[in-house]
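The step that takes the researchers longest sounds almost clerical: writing a folded protein down as plain text. Below is the pair of lines this work produces for a single protein:

——
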Amino acid sequence: MLDGQRADRTTTVGSAGASGTDATLNELPLVPSERIWGFWDYSAVNIGLAVATWAFLQGAAVAYYVGAVQAIASIVIGYAISVFLVSLAPCLPSAKYGIEQFVGLRSVFGSNGARIVMVVMSTLFAAAWSAVLAIMFGHGLVNVIDNVFGVEISQTGAAVSLLALVAVALSWLVLARGPVSVESVCRVIAPVLVLIIVGILVMVFTKRSWSELASLPPLDPESDPHTSFMVAIELNIAGGFAWWPNVGNLARLTRGPRAAFWPNWLGLFAASVAAAVVGVFAALALNLEDPTEWMIPLAGVVLGVLALIVIGFANVTAILSQGYASMVALKGGGGKLLRGTPWPVLVAFILGPAAILVFFPSAVYDNYGRFLSWGAILVAPLCAVQIVDFFLLRRGVLRIRDLYLPSARSCYGYWGGVNAFAFASVAAGAATYALLLNPVTYIPSSIFPYTTASIPAFLVAGTLHAVLTKTFVQPLGLGGYDPLPRVAAGVERSKI
């Protein structure tokens, strides 16, 4: 089946080939010649994503709870934990086999179960993140208009929504051309954003010395210091987990596991930490939470306006990553209807909900912490289940042909294409999270200051998945958990 499909795929990677298709835009495993990113290519993409305005907003959210010194510690700790975990899964399975990350999840949840995960993560979360980024774009350009033309436009009015809609439209235009366009845009934006981060840092320290900055209270100084520090750590763990829906499909385009793993530390960790720390400093120094309001007080009107324009368009690069990962997932796991849908139409399908959400700017933009929690409540247990399944239970080996076979013929068929025990493990992890940190009210429990929420959710889900699989699934011979003979495993890989 796979060989026949691949034989029909005559492509030029990154652009339409003779068949009018692009190997990077469908769900089949990519062979080495179809991988388009090496270490530095993928690093540039990751840095371009990490230093978008959401990193500044992350820093401002942390500054709400803690001062400069604790903020640095919480950002380093939080991102180190979650970036390491998402670098393991879904990055390494996708890079090892060249598979789309939700195709890989068929081994865990079954073909139909993985489709449920795909729809939730690729549509709802991608649309919500795209809307947040687009609204940031709108906020920034409204500030530009206010300062250039001497007007005062509402930050919650129609102007922000319409400008956000422009960001969504620009993202559609670039995404419709495929992943090489994503790489090209990030190559331009990433170095400029790094310069802006350095510039903000310099301007902050021209206004405040380190001792003055370190002595500034958090934006909300009334909270319990220990609980606030743990909330800040949780915000940053959740911020790192927020990359999970993207990085697997991006890592699929890399030339191997090393090129998929280490660039995450340059981009998702180092660049995110740097941008978030600078965001903390700016928020504390100016006593302002909204990153789009920092540039002009720091740099003056001319340089501030230029910086806002660049940062605004950087948000478009982050929307591109969301859109690309979601489109490949829908193309591969959405059944015959979506598989036959033209790529530009699929892009419109995923960005359509974001185009609606931008007309509710306050509800989306002003609830950043809660939004991160709604992501982490699912991603922390999902990541745990995937890591335990791939690295511990399967020893890093997948039967690639079975990922593409119908449920009745696949070793990953489980029960009607659904592994209910994997979903039960995720649900237990999500319930653990909600008990420790209410994602609606964002009020922590009495235990939270000693545990966080994401880490216990991860541990509960991963442990339960291992126990349920060993107790119920493996004894029934389901899920393909019996190890392949060494020769057979080699043949399995060589045929792909």
